[in-house]
Amino acid sequence: MRCVDPETAGNPCSDEKWVRSRLRGLSKNLNGRACPTTLGRLLRDQKLGLRSHRKVLHTGQQHVERDRQFRHIDEQRQNFRHSGDPRISVDTKKKELIGQFKNPGQTWCREAEKVNDHDFPKDAEGRAVPYGVYDPERNEGHVCVTISSDTADLAVDAIHDWWRLNQPHYPKAKRLMIEADSGGSNGARSRRYKKRLQDFADESGLEVTVCHYPAGTSKWNPIEHRLFSQIAKTWAGHMLSTLLILLAFIRRTTTTTGLKVTATHFERTYPTGLKVSKAEFKAIQLTRDEVCPQWNYTIRPHPKKTE
After folding, report:
1. d(CA 37, CA 15)
2. What residues contact residue 136 under an 8 Å CB cut-off, 6+ apart?
3. Which residues of the chain register pLDDT less than 70?
4. Is 162 in a helix, a strand, or coil?
5. Cross-strand bridge partners of residue 296
6. CB neighbour burial string for 93-118, b if at least 16 within 10 angstroms, e if fewer
């Protein structure tokens, strides 16, 4: 390894080492006495190899109630599992440009598809917004796709559409638990989200219990690694040239553990900036939990009016 010593750096307090130059650069510095292939083999013999960065270092300060919230979510899961009431995990997947655009990944083919050399939104037929609902107990997902905006109305409409399809599986349900991130269209501070959940509760007759994940912890939301990651694997390397093709890839997503996914297209338009008045917000039947009330609350249906 003396030939690469000048190009080797590392942490003096550990065994962490890395080589500053590429193999061709090392070969050139050695005046061609060793080819890049040979240098690569020698480096691998020394336990050196190609590595990428790992995002494991925490930035900022963790919320003081983070662990308490995770314990509360687990307790709620057990509660709903014991009673047989449904619980779902929800979120918006990464937005996708529809058209002749490159999609990360590779596919087996004789010749690669030709795509645009730049990802300009103006060249797209639209930007698809997939909002997902995942049922961990039944290992089934439902994705509602729009080319409009990602809003609280889309988030609750997706839950409503999921319930329309899955209500027969929960004939005795009286409650629904929702696990969601604390930001975005289903944010913990969104008044519009709570107002629309009240509408859903009134129509379905379900008590809706919501548990939000603290900021920076969305990777623990089950939908991320149980549904969205599988969809990304299904269409990896394939061009999403039309909305129908995107929906088809979502519907064909499966796993060896039995994941099933349905998908639908919402043609409606979702305007942004809709406000909820003080009177409307006050009318919401909302009760906050004693544990982390900023993240946990239950919305109950309004009593039905009788003649």
Report:
1. 25
2. 87, 88, 89, 222, 226
3. 1-21, 50-53, 56-61, 306-307
4. helix
5. 211
6. beebbbbbbbbeeeeeeeeeeeeeee
